[in-house]
Amino acid sequence: MEKDNLKIKNLKKEVILIFKKFGLKKSHALISSNALINAELVGAYGHGLSRLKMYCDRLKKKVINPKPKIKIRRISQSISLVDANDSIGFVAADIAIKQAIKNAKKTGIGMVAVKKSGHYGLSGYYAEQAVKKNLITMIYTNAPPAVAPHGSLKSLFGTNPICFGTPTGSKVPFILDTSISMINRGKIRFAEKNNQKIPVGVALDKFGKPTTNAKKALEGVQLPIANFKGSGLAWMVDILSGVLTGGNHAGRVKDPFDDFSGPQNIGHLFITFKTNLFVNNYNKRIKDNINKIKRLPKIKGVKEIVYPGQNKYKRFIMNSKKEIKISKIIKKDLELLKR
Fold it and tell me: Which strands sit side by side in the sheet containing 109-117, from one edge to the other?
């Protein structure tokens, strides 16, 4: 796949200008641009610039509110509810994680629910913000139908990511950010956009047959991790981020690429808490935990036992030192959106 190189700073400027052209104010365009560029830098291309046109299409169709009046309702010193007023998801999530951090710093624990939001990119991106403030975090969000509940013929749950982050006592945070599907939907969309095959065993076509064709996978069903266990986790996330928050749930979240009949009304739940709630030597204990596991005997071919977030951090550092490579298809999107 042929690619062009673009300097990070210049690319970010381009994306900000595009978001502003489609109605976002400068501060919201900057928040959104930072999240998209971060996805590129950590190698999560399915959540990066390949989605830029989708956000712009939704802004143009007025199913994302470019000038939202976002309200934060204080329920207690620890708990807040954000009504995102159908804003772009990046902005709603940025406000929510900052509020959750603020609440946790004040009382020890922060819980922030969000309703009337949209797709916000990588959960791990927001988890890192809390971890940098020496907080542990758990983040949940639901998504459009892609996975059939165990025993059902019809997709209803989203790929519904589960995210956990903690300080490690080192500069590299522990960030587990995983969808409940075998691979996330963004990777399948990225493959479809770039005419690539997807791995065997991650999806079925609309006839229920295994497929490696990304387009057929998008028309069919994605497979959950661990069979009925993955289905159960997806259901859990749907309850926590949809039922609990006031957001859409039970298959009502609209597909951002194909359904322009209205806002997505995605729900998110952000939970943050201090590391010293129960012990005063958390950093020492987490270091001991990680070191103990890393010293375990390794199977043949494995040089190091890595914890979640290590490889992503390495990619971020490595990619931050060079120009971002973008495909001809993404370059074409950028040119079209700038006109």
Answer: 71-74, 79-83, 109-117, 266-274, 135-141, 162-166, 174-178
CATH of the domain at 109: 3.30.1370.60
79 DSSP β-pair partners: 111
Residue 106 belongs to some domain of the structure: yes
The confidence band for 1, taking pLDDT boundaries of 50, 70 and 90, is: very low
188 has pLDDT over 80: yes
Same domain, 106 and 219: no
Are residues 95 and 208 part of one domain?
Answer: no
99 domain-assigned: yes
Task: Express as a percent the part of the chain with pLDDT over 90.
Answer: 91
Range of the domain at 275: 3-181+224-279+314-338
Q: Taking residues 1-19, what's their average pLDDT?
A: 83
Tell me: do 97 and 158 sit in the same domain. Answer: yes
Q: What's the pLDDT tens digit per position in 257-314?
A: 999 999 999 999 999 999 999 999 999 999 999 999 999 999 999 999 999 999 999 9
What is the predicted pLDDT for the residue at 3? Answer: 55
Q: Is position 305 within any domain?
A: no
The pLDDT, as a whole number, for residue 326 is 87
- The amino acid at residue 141 is T
DSSP one-letter code for 157: B
Domain identity same for 253 and 275: yes
- Strands, E assignment, the chain: 3-6, 71-74, 79-83, 109-117, 135-141, 162-166, 174-178, 203-204, 221-222, 266-274, 324-327
The alpha-helical segments, DSSP class H, found in 42-176 are 52-60, 89-107, 123-131
List, as one string, the DSSP characters of 270-319.
EEEEETTSS-S-HHHHHHHHHHHHHTS---TT------TTHHHHHHHHHH
d(CA 203, CA 256): 20
H helix or E strand, kind and range, residue 185: helix 185-193
